UniProtKB/TrEMBL annotation:
The keyword Ligase applies. InterPro entries: DUF7882. Residues 97-111 have a biased composition (Basic and acidic residues). Residues 1-96 form the DUF7882 domain. GO terms for molecular function: ligase activity. This is ATP-dependent DNA ligase. It comes from the Bacteria. Pfam families: DUF7882. The keyword Zinc does not apply. Residues 89-111 are annotated as: Disordered.
Length: 111
């Protein structure tokens, strides 16, 4: 389990694979100076509700991974996440779709 730390005060656990995809989408939005909401369903162990953060370029974020290897990236998932991030409701953690074209973080392509 990786961890997204928001404003040095709130830590949220996500699977490393999920966190890698979120980092790409959140990073792209914040690089462009865009603020947005980010929402996800909470783990049943903490109440099975949902949470939302206001993402702003001036709020510090830390992406901490538990594993040493970077997961392959599913471009279809990045596109789906970015589509929600560009909507009025903001980024919503949606399930991973079947990969059209995954990219190995070391530069190769995977099927």
């Amino acid at each position: 389990m990786g961890k997204l730390t928001y404003d040095s005060t709130l830590g949220v656990d996500f699977d490393d694979r999920v966190l890698a995809h979120l980092q790409l989408v959140i990073g792209a939005k914040l690089r462009r100076g865009e603020s947005f909401y980010f929402s996800w369903r909470d783990d049943p162990a903490i109440g099975n509700g949902r949470s939302t953060l206001w993402m702003h370029p001036r709020i510090p974020l830390v992406f901490k991974y538990s594993g040493g290897r970077q997961p392959s990236i599913n471009r279809a998932w990045v596109d789906a996440l970015m589509s929600t991030a560009n909507s009025p409701g903001g980024l919503v953690l949606v399930p991973e779709p079947e990969a059209r074209n995954s990219v190995d973080p070391n530069g190769g392509h995977e099927s």
